[in-house]
Amino acid sequence: MAPGQAGAWTLLGPLLWGCALALQGGMLYPRESPSRERKELDGLWSFRADFSDNRRQGFEQQWYRRPLRESGPTLDMPVPSSFNDVGQDAQLRSFVGWVWYEREAALPQRWSQDLDTRVVLRIGSAHYYAIVWVNGVHVAEHEGGHLPFEADISKLIQVRLTAQTAAGPVSDFHALPVGIRTVAVTESQFLINGKPFYFHGVNKHEDADIRGKGFDWSLLMKDFNLLRWLGANSFRTSHYPYAEEVMQLCDRYGIVVIDECPGVGIVLPESFGNVSLQHHLQVMEELVRRDKNHPAVVMWSVANEPASFLKPAGYYFKTVIAHTKTLDPSRPVTFVTSSNYAADLGAPYVDVICVNSYYSWYHDCGHLEVIQLQLATQFETWYRTYQKPVIQSEYGAETIAGFHQDPPLMFSEEYQRSLLEQYHSVLDQKRKEYVVGELIWNFADFMTNQTPTRALGNKKGIFTRQRQPKSAAFLLRERYWRLANETRYHRSVVKSQCLGNSLFPF
Ligand code: GCB
C-alpha cells in the first residue's frame, strides 16, 4: 500500500467467495443509500492453494501476516468464481483443502478519517470454511458456504490511517503500470527491443455462451490459462477493441497484441466517403488515447478485410494510417487484407503486410493438396511486391467438435488438423525469410448471424465455445511450445515485456 493511501489487505482461506464493503452492517444485503456507500472487491485476487502434505503450511508459516506474494508464488484468481474451473491445472481442478485469497483495497479516505463511520467487511459467500484477516488481524471466521457473514473493521481501518496521514495532506493519485520497450520493423523482421519477434498466436472474439460479449472475469482467466496452455505469445483483437481489463492482463502476462479498431465492413464505395473517413480518424484517436500506455500493444490495425482494391481505398488508407502514425509515432500500423496483392491500393501505406487466406476452405473445397503451392505463392508475391514483413493474420477451417472422418472431410476434426499442417509446412519455410507471424482463426467457436456456411455460429475455433479443445488445439500446442523454445529471443522479449506473471515460465 502506498504511503498516505487509505486501505487494507484482506486474506482468507475459503473456496469460492465474493464480498463487499458497506458502511453499515446488519446482515441484510447492503444496498447503497444516501447514508451507505459500497465498495465492491470483485475482480482479480492473489491466490494460492496449500498443496503441502498436511495442507496446513499456510497456518504454520502464518501467511496471513504479510502480503501473500512474500511467502511464495501466487496465481491471479477471479472473485467471484470457482478456482477449480478457471484453470488448466489438473491438480487444482480436483483440489480440496485450504486455499488463500488476498487482495489490497484502497478505501475512500473519509471512511478512515471520519470516526463516526462504520466500515463493515461483508463476505457474500465463501465455501466452505472461511477465516478472514485484515491487515494481518483476524476479523472473522465462518462455517458453511452460500450465506453471508460480516466483520466490523472500522477500528482497524481508522487507526491505521490516522497513523499514515499524520505526515500531511494526502494528494489524489493513482498508479499506472507501465512497461518500457521498443518496437520496430525492418524489410523482413518485426523487432521488439531490437530482437526479432515471431507472432505465434490467435485471433479472438469477446464471446461465450449466455454471456455473449459481456465481460466476465472467470471467462477471461480461463482464456488466459488456455493461451498459456497453448504456448501462444500474441493475439489480434479482431475486429474491435477489447475490454480494458483484457489489455491490462496482456501487459501483466507478456501477451503481445495487435490492437484493431472496429473498421470491419468497409466494402462499399460509399464506405470510403468523407463522412466515414472522418469517423474512422476519430475512432483511431479514441483507440490510441485509450490503449497507448499498454506495452502489450505493438501494432495498430485500422481495419479488417476492407475492399482495398476499390479506387478510393488508396487515399482512404493513406489518410487513416498517416493520422494514426501522427497520434502514435512509436508503433507500426497496418490493416488486415484479403485482397489480391496486385490490386490492393492500401498496402503501400502499411508497415507490415497482414494477409488472411482460407485455402482449401472457401476455395478448392476439400483439396488440401493445393494449400502449399497457393500459400507459398501468396507469400512470395506479397513480399516481392512490397519487401515488408508478412503475417498470416487468419487461416482455418470450420470444425464441428466430435465430427471425425479419415481420410479427412470438411467439418471434421481431422480436416482442420490436416489443413493446419499444410499451412505450417509453408510457414516453417517462410518464417526463415520474412514471415513474422501466424494467427489462427479462431481461438474459440463463436456466435454469428445465420447463413448457410455457419452451423450454430462460426466453428473455426480450436476450442469450442465452451473452451474445450478440438484435436487441432493439441497440434497447435505442440507447435507453439516448440516455436517458443526454438526462438530463444522470445524469452527475453516476454520477460521484458511482462510486468507481472509471464505466461512463459523461463
Ligand atoms: C474472415 C473474417 C472473419 C470471419 C472469417 C470466417 O476473413 O475476417 O471475421 O469470421 O473470415 O470464418 O469466415
What does this structure look like?
Helices cover 29% and strands 22% of the residues. The protein is an alpha/beta fold. Helix 10 runs parallel beside helix 11. The radius of gyration is 26 Å and the shape is globular.
Keywords for this entry:
single chain, 506 residues, alpha/beta, eight-stranded parallel β-barrel, six-stranded antiparallel β-sheet, 21 strands, globular, disordered N terminus, binds (2S,3S,4S,5R)-3,4,5-trihydroxy-6-oxo-oxane-2-carboxylic acid
Describe the protein's topology.
Blueprint lengths: L6 E6 L2 E8 L15 E3 L2 E7 L7 H4 L14 E5 L3 H4 L3 H4 L5 E8 L2 H5 L6 E8 L1 E6 L2 E7 L5 E4 L1 H12 L17 E3 L4 E3 L2 E2 L2 E5 L13 H14 L3 E3 L7 H10 L2 E5 L13 H18 L5 E8 L8 H15 L5 E5 L15 E4 L14 H16 L3 E5 L18 H18 L4 E6 L30 H16 L2 H9 L9
Parallel strand pairs: 14-15, 14-21, 15-16, 16-17, 17-18, 18-19, 19-20, 20-21
Antiparallel strand pairs: 1-6, 1-8, 2-3, 2-7, 4-5, 4-6, 7-10, 8-9, 11-12, 12-13
Helix pairs in contact: 8-9, 10-11, 11-12
